[in-house]
Amino acid sequence: MNAVNAAITIPLPAASTVPAGLTITIKKIDASANPVTITSTSLMDGAGSRTLTAQYEAITVMSDGSSIYRVVSGVNANTNVFNNTSVAKTAITNTFLNTNYPAAAYPAGSLVIFTNLSDAVTNTAECRRLTPTTWSINATAGKL
Hints:
Order of helices and strands: EEEEEEEHEEE
CATH superfamily of the largest domain: gp9
Strand content: 35-45%
Oligomer: single chain
Shape: elongated
Largest sheet: 4 strands, mixed
CATH topology of the largest domain: Jelly Rolls
């Protein structure tokens, strides 16, 4: 987006109106002080808006197809998506996550999403770090 002449606001469609897994990337290409603000009625990792202020700053969000967008890169991104057919849903525990996703690289609030787990192609696990040693683990048999 080129905001050289004025600030720009970009409204995203509701996450429920786009397919699960759809990603949208928005990039500010100018060096002006005018911000590019992305808004949505579907929260983006808990926020109703995200703002790009620097030249070449970008954000990529991914729809869950239902009610939210995950920020997968860019402004305040702390989401990591892994397509991992070698991990079973039952193997995703606090011990597994703390060993493979250390707190230094994945601080509190980080979200790690596994798709295509070895249990079945449609299995997913959404894991959010709550503290340096504790994760919230939500494993499902369906898509996110």
